[in-house]
Amino acid sequence: MNYENYLSDCCKNIPRSFIREILSVAEQEDFISFAGGLPNPDFFPVEELKNGLASIFTDTGKETLQYAGSQGFLPLREWISSYYNTKYGMHTKASQYIITNGSQQALAIVSKAMINPGDVVALEKPSYLGGIQALSLNSPVFKQVSLNPDGVDLEELENVILNYGVKLFYAIPNFQNPSGISYSYTKKQELAALLEHYQTILVEDNPYGELHFKGENSAPIVGMLPNQTIWCGSFSKMISPGIRTGWICAPDEMVPWLIKIKQAVDLHTNNIVQRLIYHFLSNHDIESHLQKIRNAYGKQCRVMQNEVIKYFPEGSEITNPEGGMFIWVKLPEGYDTEKLIKIAIQKKVVFVPGRSFFTNGEGNRYMRLNFSNASEGMIIEGIARLSEAIKECEMVFA
Ligand code: PMP
Asked: Atom of ligand 1 at shortest distance to CA of 103?
């Protein structure tokens, strides 16, 4: 049978995840991986969650094992709303939140709820591959807009809006994946004003927002544009990605539409995990937990930047992240990171070639390097291997 004949166009059109393929290579022994977007497992609160699980089963076992409401566990929604309201002076209400199976599902729900085939979706250039996959579900037309060191190029975005009639702008304004770039506070305000003027919806993806290790306040834009922003957040980088829990925060009127999609997809997010996260958040100091992660990632980032600056070819450009988990490197003219990855694999080091983060086949001089899941020693050794691979690449492909 030719199974492809039975597939939907949308399934055929979703780009494959190169990252997931590299990750399976990197699982082999002795590999150093800068490819995955993996948080550092040293900071997973294993004991706290183990004890928390025992407590919730002892105290509320039957409720925990029952079906639950589609919107998500109310105390958890109240906690998220109050945490961000207090921290960033926002005015969200628990009723605006939907708890999702990670922020990846949040993006897929928004995509299913809002995009028709052919709708124009603007996004940053480069952008998160998983976001591109989720937004591809209903076959939109993508228009990528350049990302400058202080955020998206507003003039270019305005031209795209004027020329193509953009329905949604998908952005990761804090410590972006893949570039590590953050919008300045002024850029966030200007973007909010521009989108308000053109009545364009902002889909703000903010999974790294709490991982700031230097620089200015990483307030989300939703506080500046509450009536036009669908804000997606996640506990993956704050607590653990295995718990698969995130959220959507949307304007009141939109919430019932988004809940309808959530119901169609999986009825509700895992009730055990929602209660477990709430138990963890109410019994531990999340700020001191986050501070440990920020300190470690800040150090790992500096080590990686220093090694790249020392050993990569003259003319390479790297970003200078103020948080998050990635740096983004542009190699000089003539290099192709998709050729480089083949040699890098032989040297037992992997990264993600840049092309995956572009919707139009560009990006072959770029690479994404993850620093959060490697010790200082691994970073030094891995960048040394990568520099060797780059030198060999020059010889092989010159
Ligand atoms: N958005 C961005 C920008 C990401 O980098 C990721 C994960 N790598 C996600 C969303 C999805 O995260 P999760 O589903 O684990 O919350």
From this structure: 16
CA of 104 to the centre of ligand 1 (A): 6
CA nearest to 78, candidates 63, 66, 57, 92: 92
User: How confident is the model over 75-131, as pLDDT tens digits?
Assistant: 999 999 999 999 999 999 999 999 999 999 999 999 999 999 999 999 999 999 999
- Please provide residue 42's backbone torsions phi and psi, each rounded to the nearest 5 degrees: -60, -25
Q: How far is the CA of 378 from the centre of ligand 1 (A)?
A: 24
Rg (CA), the chain: 21
* CB of 128 shorter than 6 A to ligand 1: yes
Q: In angstroms, rounded to a whole number, what is the distance separating the alpha carbons of residues 300 and 384?
A: 15
The overall pTM is greater than 0.70: yes
Judge if the beta carbon of residue 205 lies within 6 A of ligand 1. yes
Q: List pLDDT tens digits, range 6-56.
A: 998 888 888 777 777 777 777 788 999 999 899 999 999 999 999 999 999
User: How far is 258 from 201, CA to CA, in rounded Å?
Assistant: 15
Q: Which helix (H) or strand (E) holds 143?
A: strand 141-148
- Taking Cα atoms as reference points, which of 138, 97, 115 lies closest to residue 269? 97
